[in-house]
Structures are given as C-alpha cells and as structure tokens.
Amino acid sequence: MRTFDFAPLHRATVGFDQIADLMDRVMSSDLQQPSYPPYNIEKTADDAYRISIAVAGFSEAELNVEVKDHALVVSARKAEEAEGRTYLHRGIATRAFERRFTLADHVRVEGASHADGMLHIDLVREVPEALKPRRIEIASGLTNRPKEIAAAAVN
Question: Rounded to whole angstroms, what are the CA distances from 18 to 13, 24, 74, 102, 105?
C-alpha cells in the first residue's frame, strides 16, 4: 500500500489545519477501527442528531463524555468488582473503552442521557447567521446605479 507524505501540504496552507489533520487521520497506518461498544448515529431533525451507544453493565458514574478539539470523546472504566464473585460464564463485556467522534464545524453537544443500558448523546448543528444563505434584493431602474469613480481617485 502506498503512503503519502503531507508535510509539504502543511507548509503550503495557512488556516487549513483541520483539513491536514483530517487527512493525516484518514491516511494513518492504524486503519482498524474499534468495534466495541456498538453505536448508532441517527438524524432526529434537520439540524439535530443523536448518537446512541450500547453501554450495558456501566453505571452513569463510570461513563465520561467530553468535548475537546472538535471531537466528542466517550470513555468508560468499570469500577473494581467486589471479591467473592465467581462467574460460570461472563458474556457481558465491561472492559474499558474510549470512542471518538469528530464533530463538524458549528455542531455542539446539547446533552446526554443514560437509560436501559444505552447512552444517548444529542447533537445540534447551529450555523451562525453570518454563514446562512441570505437573499439579495435586485433593484430595478436607474435609481440605484453605482456611482462612477473618477480615474484619478483609483490610483
């Protein structure tokens, strides 16, 4: 498999650090994504999303949800179990995990809830007014013509 060096891209672009970081993550040699715990991502409205993660066996105190550097980080660590338990079969996975989701621009975490072995994280995309499309009125007639600038004033 080919590997690409994006170092020249870092030097030639200013203000596009997120794009270069994203390319580095995509092209990294660690292509195997963890499959534990399983999760769903659903669109609940035009600008609203929900991530549902199966966290059976973990309490709310053992779960941690953080947002840092445009990434949502969900992690869990099981507290030490009491001595004296002997399992004949242990099928419920309670191993520690950390799962990362890269958030797009203007997406914020609205809240999280834990019920019935599922951790639900609600996300909202809030585009600032300055970035929303706006309609420009087209004036008709000669009343709103731009004024001509004298040639001497341009230099």
Answer: 11, 10, 21, 11, 10
Is the previous residue joined to 37 through a cis bond, with omega within 30 degrees of 0?
Answer: yes
pTM for this structure? 0.64
Tell me the pLDDT tens digit for each residue of 10-68. 555 455 555 666 666 666 645 556 778 899 999 999 889 999 999 988 889 999 999 98
**12 within a domain of the structure (yes/no):** yes
Query: 9 near 22, Cβ under 8 Å?
Result: no
Q: Which residues contact 62 (CB under 8 A, 6 or more apart)?
A: 76, 77, 78, 79
Residue with tokens 């242990």: 90
Return the ∠ at Cα 67 (arms to 32 and 57), rounded to 5°: 65
Domain residue limits at 106: 37-129
50, 27: one domain: no
Q: Which of 67, 56, 63 is nearest to 79 (CA)?
A: 63
